[in-house]
Amino acid sequence: MPIVAGPSGILELVQATDQAELDNWLNTARIIRVFDSYFRALDEKHFDESHFRQIFTPEAKVVRPNGIAMVGPANIANSHTESFSRFEGAQHLLTGHDVAIDGDTAVVRANLVAIHLWKDRPADASMLERSFTAGGVITANLLRMPDGWRIAEIENRIVWRTGFFGSIAQTR
Q1: I need a labelling partner for 81 at 20 to 30 A (CA). Which of 1, 64, 87, 97 fits?
Q2: What is the DSSP string of 77-105?
Q3: pTM of the prediction?
Q4: Residues 6+ apart with CB under 8 A from 61
Q5: Which of 26, 163, 42 is closest to 94 using CA atoms?
Q6: Residue 125: alpha-carbon gap to chain centroid
Q7: What are 76-108's pLDDT values in tens digits?
């Protein structure tokens, strides 16, 4: 839009800038909602393939801290069903979402603290004996699809761990 001299031209420029900023905020909110919905699904053990199709692209990749990747919503859902069956519960706390949008692609970086309670540990054991907690950095690439933003790839880089690890392979 060309800059036009006079109050009406400045007003048009301000309105166009405001609309672009509003569009960016709206897309950022939609991206964070999809990103967070993945971790909510982990916490609620909502591993239904149709639900994961609302979160991931058809060829999405989830890269575990040990480097093993799962590809596609069905494989991701099945793998999480199996992996999370050993936990009584889990809670994934995300903070510091940093979103960069470039057209129909976006990158998100967030900090994660994840707590996992083992099913097979005594209920009266201390939290350190019946759970493990990990802190890390999550990075994700998202694509704008016809029906909204979807995760194309997501990776968890573990920074620290504490607690009882059971059968979990140490990655940090």
Answers
A1: 97
A2: HHHHHHHHTTEEEEEEEEEEEEEEEETTE
A3: 0.85
A4: 69, 70, 71, 152, 153, 154
A5: 42
A6: 31
A7: 999 999 989 999 999 999 999 999 999 999 999
